[in-house]
Design a protein that fits this description.
The structure holds two protein chains of two kinds.
Chain A lengths: L10 H16 L7 E6 L1 H9 L10 H15 L7 E4 L4 E6 L4 H20 L10 H19 L1 H13 L17 H6 L13 H4 L2 H18 L10 H8 L4 H22 L1 H19 L7 H11 L9 H17 L4 H6 L3 H6 L7 H11 L2 H8 L2 H6 L2 E7 L4 E6 L2 H12 L7 E8 L4 E6 L8 H15 L3 E7 L2 E7 L4 E5 L1 H7 L1
Parallel strand pairs in A: 1-3, 7-8
Antiparallel strand pairs in A: 2-3, 4-5, 6-7, 8-9, 9-10
Chain B lengths: L3 H13 L11 E2 L3 E5 L8 E5 L3 E2 L15 E5 L33 H9 L15 E12 L9 H14 L19 E12 L1 E8 L6 H21 E2 L2 E7 L3 E4 L1 H6 L8 H14 L7 E8 L6 H18 L2 E7 L8 H9 L7 E6 L5 H9 L4
Helix pairs in contact in B: 2-4, 4-9, 6-7
Classes of the chains: A alpha+beta, B alpha/beta.
């Protein structure tokens, strides 16, 4: 059915790939070597189901993704035109049935993505040899399955996958914390060197006493485990859960892959916007299409950036916001004076031909992710210009109803939905809860509630890893709620008393 | 060609069908895509629903704990307070409201045959006639470098280990120790070959009398359809004949067999007589393996006719046939005694040529087929 073999490009496509690449470079794009492969839809769908990497470990969910893609393709509901993976060199798959104008557009789009992978800060810590690592993950898991049995390994993978959103997406960018063990060793404050008669001046007693107090406090605190709340729950489980060697290996693989894919989820809007911006620019001005292809191109591009009912299209939002930012910096619409205007008309009339837009968008591509991008550039004028609104489900009408067109709620809602990849922020706060070796997780409430039904089932999965009671504290309808699972029963505590005990 | 995706896909399908990992059942959602296709003419467009089973592993997620909290940002026209001018259909997105319809697993006919085939077989096939009919058979004739340990080919492994050690100069004739490494391992592999088995004919008989309600007819049709699906998948070159009967019987074409709506009284013997005619004229028992399947609600016209049936079975059918299967649905009038009479006469379940089963609802179709053709009979 699916074969991943190299199908060399036809001379025509090869020449196009070169010339479009040259054109992109001239515009300032800077990408890894990109290897295009033309594949049939089965291979492309299979690759997409494997998230781009044909050599993933065996698991049913790839089959599930594939089933969906194959069916939506078969019934003509959706087609994937291309797929590109963040490796060096980068591999991009093109669908063999794409017409030539589409292949050209897709190539330009791909160069945009690869440039983004290479230069965006949030991708700077990803493994560019991920193909090799994926292959090694696959062979480890196959080996483990041979030893342990498919069913048991698969079950463990499923439990781990239930938790694979509990990572700290920012941890690759944090400075490593000083080892906690070292901090705990100090029992007395360090004294400055001084001759005996000077000692009471150089090291005053009250200062020493205060420091001693601090250390004692810290040592007291250290009895808390972990010392600080840990957001990388998977890491915590790896270090402290009673797992066997093979289980640790599997969990580590799941965690590594979750971290690898996190930046792509973190930059979905910006990345797609950037690639769409460049395919549109390159195809229309830098490496122009044949006049006969223009209508097809417009049709295609309109499809990519179409509004889709009640779902925000990341391609559309990304490209429009980039263009908006470019325009603002081209027209000098930035700085204290511009921002101080209250009247939209004043803002509109503020025109200084600074022509800084091009360099501004490269700066955005370098440093921003979706959250910072939207936080910094989505403003009131943009919201109105693009007719954005907030909707909410109305149970009476059984419809989604527009609740607001005001800038504040729109931006808030949008940011909420993408912060931490749209996942709740959950940390381990106590690994020895109730002094019984039980595990307490805490949901840091940020305005959005956590789904309760799923939480129960997830706790069950967590229990299989921790092997003792597991708890999660969060906030529902303004009240603190602790959900617990002890291996056989679920338990729910509502009210403040419980949480004080927890903290 | 067998690839990695095939194995992941078949694993997923097995889970969805509940063959393995039953604990995941709770996480399976049907998640159809519902899309509109224009139908012929200018009538209303038809709704087409494509089942897209999904297994959603639970996660800690944001989620509305009641529907009032579903919200989001979008763009487009419309005033505050008006409903979102969404496109008419939810498109490729999983719809937000849980679908009501139960999950239907999409099984192709061939897959269905395969599913059944793992558990069924035709009993007592004899080498008769001119071998027109074939069975798929696995022949372990090949050797591969990869495979399950259960198919490890010991001799070949050592032979290749010996070759390697001679070639690399490790081998010492005075101390002939050969230690295989991973690359030396050889495994048996099979090929599916069609094995000629003889000639066989299936004779399907169905009661289409007035006492058979639509539900009953549907059931026996389903049963014979599944039976036929499996047979044609597993055995090539099987002859099939279809007989419908009420008070009289006739031989019909396949599609008619599945579609006929008749009414009238029931004389089961008429069908048996027809079958005997068929056997005598077309399928002499010395040349053919003969399998008969009869479906009815058992509501025979008279006890006399039942006696006649048993007589016909004993004197003509059973001596000629390899197997006679009888499936009975529940009669609308609750007067289906034929199954009882058969059971009494042949002391069922005995291990003779007669097998009978009750088919009371859709769920009992597969068990019935297993009674008919279960392996090891």
């Amino acid at each position: 059915m699916t074969k991943f073999h190299k199908q060399s490009l036809s001379p025509e496509l090869r020449d196009l790939a070169c010339s479009i690449g040259e054109a992109a470079k001239k515009e300032g794009l800077d990408f890894f070597d990109t290897i295009f492969e033309v594949v049939d839809h089965e291979t492309l769908n299979a690759a997409a189901a494997y998230h781009g990497f044909p050599n993933r470990y065996p698991h049913w969910r790839w089959g599930m993704h594939y089933d969906r893609l194959a069916k939506t393709y078969r019934y003509g509901l959706s087609t994937i035109y291309e797929l590109v993976i963040n490796t060096n060199p980068s591999y991009a798959y093109l669908l063999d049935s794409n017409p030539l104008v589409l292949q050209k557009t897709v190539m330009a789009h791909v160069y945009g993505h690869v440039d983004f992978f290479k230069n965006n800060y949030w991708f700077s810590k990803t493994n560019r040899k991920m193909l090799d690592q994926m292959a090694s993950h696959a062979s480890s898991i196959r080996k483990i399955q041979e030893d342990i049995g498919q069913e048991e390994v698969e079950r463990f993978i499923d439990y781990s996958l239930s938790l694979d959103n509990l990572i700290d997406i920012h941890s690759p960018f944090k400075r490593p914390v000083v080892s906690e063990a070292g901090e705990g060793q100090v029992t007395h404050p360090a004294k400055l060197q001084a001759k005996k008669y000077m000692d009471s001046y150089v090291n005053p007693k009250d200062v020493l006493a205060a420091k001693q107090q601090e250390i004692d406090n810290f040592r007291q605190q250290k009895k808390h485990f972990p010392v600080r709340p840990e957001r990388d729950v998977l890491q915590f489980l790896l270090a402290h859960a009673p797992l066997s060697e093979w289980q640790k290996k599997v969990l580590d693989i799941i965690r590594t892959e979750a971290y690898y894919f996190a930046p792509q989820a973190q930059t979905k809007i910006l990345n797609e916007g950037w690639a769409s911006y460049w395919h549109s620019k390159i195809m229309t001005s830098v490496h122009p299409l044949e006049p006969s292809e223009i209508v097809d191109f417009c049709d295609l591009h309109a499809g990519v950036v179409a509004e889709s009912g009640h779902n925000l299209n990341p391609y559309r939002l990304g490209i429009e916001l980039l263009r908006y930012a470019k325009k603002r910096w081209d027209e000098g619409k930035f700085g204290i004076k511009y921002l101080s205007y209250d009247d939209p008309k004043q803002r509109r009339d503020h025109l200084i031909p600074t022509q800084l837009g091009a360099s501004k968008i490269f700066e955005i591509r370098k440093w921003h992710n979706d959250v910072t991008f939207i936080d910094e550039f989505l403003d009131e004028d943009f919201c109105h210009e693009h007719k954005m609104f907030v909707y909410q489900y109305d149970p009476k009408q059984k419809k989604r109803v527009i609740t607001s067109r005001d800038f504040g709620p729109i931006k808030q809602q949008l940011l909420d939905s993408i912060t931490n990849l749209g996942q709740p922020i959950i940390e381990v706060t106590d690994g020895n809860y109730k002094n019984r070796g039980e595990l307490l997780l805490c949901h840091r409430f940020a305005g959005e509630e956590r789904s309760m039904e799923q939480a129960k089932q997830t706790l069950e999965a967590l229990y299989h890893l921790w092997s003792r009671g597991v708890h999660i504290a969060s906030q529902v309808a303004g009240k603190k709620v602790v959900l617990s699972f002890d291996g056989s029963e679920h338990h729910q505590d509502i009210g403040d008393a419980v949480v004080q005990e927890a903290s | 060609m067998y690839t990695k995706m095939d194995s992941d896909l078949s694993r997923f399908r097995k889970i969805v069908r509940g063959q393995v990992r039953k604990e995941l059942k709770n996480f399976i959602s049907s998640g159809d895509i519902i899309t509109q296709i224009p139908s012929q003419g200018n009538r209303k467009s038809q709704t087409l629903s494509i089942p897209l089973p999904q297994i959603n592993l639970p996660k800690f997620t944001h989620g509305p704990n009641n529907n009032n909290q579903q919200k989001g940002v979008a763009q487009g026209k419309g005033d505050v307070g008006k409903d979102v001018a969404s496109s008419d259909e939810p498109g490729g997105q999983a719809s937000q409201s849980p679908a009501d319809h139960a999950y239907e697993s999409e099984v192709t006919l061939d897959e269905l045959g395969q599913l059944l085939g793992e558990e069924l077989n035709l009993p007592r096939i004899e080498q008769k006639g001119n071998k027109t009919f074939e069975q798929k058979h696995r022949r372990y004739s090949g050797v591969l470098n990869q495979g399950p340990e259960s198919l490890h080919h010991f001799t070949r492994t050592y032979r290749s280990a010996l070759k390697r050690s001679i070639a690399s100069g490790i081998y010492d004739p005075k101390n002939p120790v050969v230690v295989p490494i991973k690359d030396d391992k050889k495994y048996r592999s099979f090929q599916a070959v069609n094995q000629p088995l003889g000639s066989a004919v299936m004779i399907y008989m169905m009661d289409v009398s007035g006492s058979m309600g639509d539900k009953q007819k549907e059931l026996v049709r389903l049963t014979s359809f599944w039976l036929d699906t499996w047979l044609t998948h597993s055995y090539k070159g099987v002859e099939r004949r279809f007989i419908i009967h009420d008070a009289t019987a006739k031989v019909v074409a396949e599609d008619l067999f599945y579609r006929t709506r008749e009414s009238g009284g029931t004389l089961i013997s008429s069908a048996y007589k027809k079958a005997i005619d068929l056997i005598n004229n077309e399928f002499p028992p010395q040349d053919w393996n003969i399998y008969l399947f009869h479906f009815s609600d058992g509501d025979n016209w008279s006890q006399n006719d039942t006696q006649l049936c048993l007589q016909l079975l004993d004197s003509s059918i059973l001596p000629a046939a390899n197997l006679f299967c009888y499936g009975q649905t529940e009669s609308r009038y609750g007067s289906g005694y034929f199954l009882k009479d058969l059971t009494k006469h042949y002391q069922l379940p005995a291990s003779g040529k007669v097998v009978a089963s009750q088919i009371s609802d859709q769920g009992s179709i597969i068990p019935a087929l297993k009674t008919f053709l279960g392996s090891g009979r």
